[in-house]
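To close the chapter, one final illustration. This time we ask the reader to focus less on the individual chains and more on the assembly as a whole: which components sit near each other, and how the overall shape emerges from the parts.
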Amino acid sequence: MSDHSHEISKHVRIYFIVGIALLIGTVLTVAMNSVHFDSMAVTIAIALFIACVKGFLVAGYFMHLMSEKKMIYSILGATAFFFAGMMYLTIFARDDTPLGTLHTGSGEAFHPAEKSAAH
Amino acid sequence: MQPTTRETHHAGVHEPHHEELGFWRKYVFSTDHKVIGMQYGFTALLFLLVGFGLMLMMRWQIAYPGQPLPVIGPLLHSILGDAASPVLDANGALRGYSITADLYNALGAMHGTIMVFLAIVPLAFAAFGNFVVPLQIGAPDMAFPRVNMASYHAYVIGGVIMFTSFFIPGGAAQAGWTSYSPLATQIPTNGQTFWIIGMVFLITSSLLGAVNFIATIIQLRAPGMTWMRLPFFVWAQFVTAFLLLLAFPPLEAAAVMQLMDKLAHTSFFLPTGLAAGGAIANVSGGGSPLLWQHLFWFLGHPEVYVLILPAMGIVAEVIANNTRKPLWGYKSLVYSVLAIGFLSFIVWAHHMYLTGMGTKISTFFQTTTMIISIPSVIILSCLFISLWGGSIRFNTPMLFALGFLPMFGIGGLTGLPLGLNYSDIHLHDTYYVIAHFHYVVAPGTIFGLMAGIYFWYPKITGRLMNEFWGKVHFWLSLIFMNLVFQPMFAQGMAGMLRRMSDGGANYSLAKVGQDAIGGLTDSIMHWNITISHAAAALGLAQIPFIINFFWSMKHGKIVTSDNPWEATTLDWQTPTPPPHGNFAAAPHAYRGPYDYSLPGEPKDFTPQNQPA
Amino acid sequence: MDIPYVAQPRQDTGLYNAKVGIWLFLASEVMLFGALFSSYIILRVGAAPGSWVHGLLNIPIGTFNTAVLITSSVTVVLSWSALKAGNFAKYRVLQAITILCALGFLGIKSFEYREKFLHYEVWKTDGTRLLGHIDYNGTHPLFWKTETLAQQKLDSIKFVPDPYHYTMTAKEMAHARKGGHGKEHEPVTIKTSEITRLSSFVPAHSTYFGIYFTLTALHALHVLGGAIVIAFIWGPGAKLWKTDPDRYINRVEVSGLFWHFVDLVWIFLFPVLYLL
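The assembled structure is written out below.
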């Protein structure tokens, strides 16, 4: 029983640490954003990187994915495959468009950097 | 170990929850998987009939454009008003009421929607899945009985919303079952709003069902029922559930966005500079019509396999049982169905070759489309080879299962030219496409489902359906199905487009000689009438089935055993009909699902729960 | 026969039924939000130059709301461990904080929504575009659009413009905001005849606000749903703790998994919608 409660208090400590890490991550994202990098790509990469780390912490520790059963991994693995297919192929399909057919009607080749309005 | 007569079984029934439930708890708010399966079955068959009726009205309009609709014309006019418009003769006297183009569009859109989402999927996946899967894996019920009930109720609500939309001002959705934007949102009536809200309920229903099926198959398999001992039908349902689980949410997202476009006037799918009805639309623009198509077909293609896989599963069960030998290549079947599941998610844009996709992405989707035909062919081949050397019993379920094989073969093989983008340019959106997917779904899936109904009917009711009328039903259906759909290949290849409300009559006027571009020759146009007559005859051919279905409940031949087909799977090792909780004693699986004609056994079938 | 593995895990999978169920459900949720995220990407890269709205959301409030949600996630997982240790009272307190956090999140979110509905953009005939607030006899009206001007028979509106616009880069906007501080924004009068379009920041304003409201409203619905389930288990559903504690702990765990997922979605929504 003492082993059991020791185990639980160890877990509680981990949950606190993860919670604080998540809060720090949030502050970090906002701070990075106020720096205003010249390249939009860098800003996006940093923001998404921090978000992914935070997502990993929540999924891995709060949702116990670090030590889950094989069946759950299989389900999520299949989901990840379809998720990636949906994201990648839709965007691939959009980028691989013959010239002059986009609704912008510019007839120019498509350059994501040029179209991105948020730079 | 395996009780075969009803007497021995009933003696052994031990029901811990033996309480009489009231009408509402027993038939409406039931949580028993078998009752829910039957609820799904009845509702779906009803919608199948409704969808068929819509099609008959369309076929009339195609064969005799503008002519007054016989019998139900006045009825349509009194219910729907001017959507069924008066037809006058030369003297100005009323001849009757005909279908307007708007009503034709609504009938088309709703025929597709009702058949796919309210008839076939609920019947194939939810009805058969609910009734059979827990029995075949040896489970007492589904993993989440109340979720199961909620799933059925969401389905009914969705169905009622869809059906009600016919009677609102402006009528039902008119933008096709695919509901392409901007057309769908720019039609100024509210039919599309009803369609979207109905879809949200149907999607929710399917998601709840899918979660339940997968959890049930993973968790509630009886002891000894390992993955490779699952009947093929269970595998088919398992993959189907995954397709529904992961492919439907993107359509739900798209439906929410289209609802926003419709109600909150956003521009998710509306491009800049959109003009509708001769005026620039009052929207912010900046949206992408192609986005809708991507999200729709991301569901749409897996949905095709949702329609066909359960039918394949049923056919496999029926064939194994009636050839009295194990399925040929059980493992190949299982791996093929899994491969189909995975590949079906990365082929969707072959529906979109004509949207201006580039060559790279077209090639990608063309390649995956060709690859996915391989496992489909493996499944069909395995089923064909299973017939070889069997002592086949040609009863009604088996006839339908045998009918499925060539019909699905035709449907599948005619899909190849549509999957290759060069030939698709010619065939896209013609009657060829209609013929292709109806061969898959109508004589394909529906034959599979009919086989299932005739096959499991004695387990549900304790009585057999009439064999003679069953065979009449089969042969007439087979003949008229082919008469309906075979000529459409010719019409499509001649260039007849699929969404014209007059069946191409306007185009046929454009013939200069016989070969003007867009002109349709008389020989092609004449098929319209033949097809419509065959469709009406196909409707009449279902009457023996409907009468047989109800008559046999009271008067059919009573089964003398719990296992009238002498089958091996666990669904037949239960009392008839199975009580709440299904099994008299907790079942245990000792062997594979198709141990027919084992050498050395006294009988030609060895049930899964018979110890080795 | 009763349904097995309701409370105890099945041996070969190591899982009880509800855990399989919730993970399957979350898998479908991943696809739901995934489809919306991919829509966001498509709409954004396809936006004409200068038409993608950014920098108009209230970042301090968004950050605070993120912290609220993270806190609730911590209390959920702590309450579950307290329950596993048999400490029901501690579970009750922690889960009460969770529910309060959920309500706080929704309250703050609706305040944010209202702020947007008060904020306007005006497209003028000379091609200029202004952001700001409408001063209508000293009040700030909600939800006005171009047609409202004709319906109210207004010849002109009094408009308090902001010193920035989303056609600027993020850096320029921040600079303009700083420069604007301390200075009174002088209201300007804009003639109705000069206005080609008027819209508050509602979904119809632009694809950005469309996807912003769709995503956050859908997320808020999840927060609401999760809070209702957690509150049910916390309140009327707590009877189960007496009769079948294992099953009760499972329910808390499963509702917690859903809650963490809702938190996870927000972790991605926040930078994508507020910052980028």
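The longest strand of chain C covers residues 129-135. Chain C has a mean pLDDT of 93. With these observations in hand, you are ready for the problems at the end of the chapter.
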